[in-house]
Specification:
It is a single chain. The chain is α+β, with helices and mostly antiparallel strands. The protein contains 1 helix and 11 strands; from the N terminus they run H-E-E-E-E-E-E-E-E-E-E-E. The chain is rod-shaped and about 100 Å long. 15% of the residues are buried. Keywords: Cell projection, Cilium, Flagellum, Membrane, Transmembrane, Transmembrane helix.
């Protein structure tokens, strides 16, 4: 009888150890999942609070034909600041990616950040006149487009 009680105690302790191990694994997995959900929520919240508009006059988008530069103006209409650097934006005109010559903050020249309400200047190397479809894409994937006339 003593050996039977001893084997039952050993089995009981083994079951408790296995249950504690499984509970630890489940707890760790749940914690990692909740951290991942929190990080994704922060990224999504940032993307949703970012917004901008192209504020050029569609009937007269400025172009310097001597330098071959077309100027685009974007306004930060979101709730968070946006970067205004050459690497932060991609400009596509009529389906072709065009090189960005320089960028600047119209409201705070020299600043590399557009605060809500600020207007940014994007100068691109494009020297064709006529009606064009212009798309500006932010590094986060947010994009805006305009169909306008470049004289």
């Amino acid at each position: 009888m003593a050996s039977s009680a001893l084997s039952e105690i050993i089995l009981f302790v083994t079951v408790l150890i296995i249950a504690a191990f499984v509970a630890g694994v489940l707890l760790t997995s749940s914690y990692k999942i909740s951290i991942g959900i929190g990080e994704k929520t922060d990224v999504l919240s940032e993307k949703l609070s970012q917004d901008f508009e192209i504020v050029n006059d569609p009937s007269n988008i400025p172009r310097d034909s001597n330098l071959g530069i077309t100027t685009l103006y974007i306004k930060n209409t979101g709730n968070t600041q946006l970067p205004i650097t050459k690497n932060s934006y991609t400009v596509i005109i009529d389906g072709l990616v065009v090189p960005i010559e320089n960028v600047d903050n119209y409201n705070n020249p020299g600043s590399n950040v557009l605060y809500p309400g600020d207007v940014g200047i994007i100068n691109v190397s494009y020297n064709n006149s006529g009606y064009h479809k212009i798309k500006v894409v932010l590094y986060s994937g947010l994009s805006r487009e305009i169909i306008g006339y470049i004289p």
